[in-house]
Fold this sequence. Notes:
Blueprint: H1 22-25, E1 31-36, H2 54-59, E2 64-69, H3 71-74, E3 84-87, E4 94-97, H4 106-114, E5 126-128, E6 142-143, H5 157-165, E7 171-173, H6 180-201, H7 206-221, H8 225-236, H9 243-257, H10 264-275, H11 284-298, H12 305-317, H13 321-324
Parallel strand pairs: 1-2, 1-5, 3-6, 5-7
Antiparallel strand pairs: 3-4
Amino acid sequence: MVTNVLDLELRPFTFEAKLMNQESMNNVEKIKIGLSACLAGKNVRYNGGHTQSALCLKVLAPYFEYLTFCPEAEAGFGIPRPAMRLSGDPDNPSLTLSSGESDDMKAQLMSGISANLNRFDDIDGYILMKNSPSCGLERIKVYQANGHPHEKKVSGLFTQSIKQQYPLLPLEEDGRLHDPKLRENFILRVYTHFQFRKQIVHAPTLNKLFQFHSQYKYILMAHNQDLVREMGRMLADGNKNQISQLTQSYFEQLMSCLKKPASHKNQTNALLHLLGYLKKEIPAASRQHIAEVIHQYRNGLVPLVAPMTLLKHYAQQSENEYFKFQQYWQPYPEDLKLINQI
């Protein structure tokens, strides 16, 4: 059993790792994710229109297969329909017309949601419509009897159901995806969720979990160094006879670790650790130059792509398989150009 959880790369590293390397990443099939139907350009909004997302339909469409859904339309509220809002108790809000002149329509909406939730069993992310009483990710107002919103804001009713049934599923709002850091983080989580389901979930073994953790070590380190150590200890203490429980626990920790964008400080730490693998492969002057570029990144003078390009150049030439095939070099298709802006 591996006992040094901070040095899991000492476990035999096989060519199975190439299944998830940067060369295969660009050739992987489209990943299926959920998308609010109005963002796909479907005329399902309360006013009979849509809020078509150019980001989703032009920039991301080559990489994702969209499963579109509108909770209100599926629940039979009609198109067009009166505008609705959440009201009453934020912990158990009602769904009423924005005019306030209606009975609670929540049961009808929830019936439509419940009938369709299983459609999302095989997706790896969801892009939601902001400010919607059904699809809003967060900050949704809940109005009180006096007409003013409660200070506590919530998720939309459909989003709450998705969170409950698929707690590890990456979720994001279309508007927030225009922030480069949030977009990169969401797509990283989608691809990681996809890879873990594809490589591990359907036929888990302890060795596969070690392989996955070894490959993703520096991605995880760039997000949460304490949690990556905890995940390593979990695997080191793992029991192959309890593989299903271990796989689920690791999956939970994995997605929790990636939930927030990586900080410059943690990215710098990961980059410097990776630079250490070149100690015997390139001259000291070259290593010093790369270290300087890494610190320029930390200070906000250059984007992440600058030190990554330098390190990846040497990784491609390295004879160290563990270093060469780290998922850190390309956790999602390079054509997305996500690290050029962060």
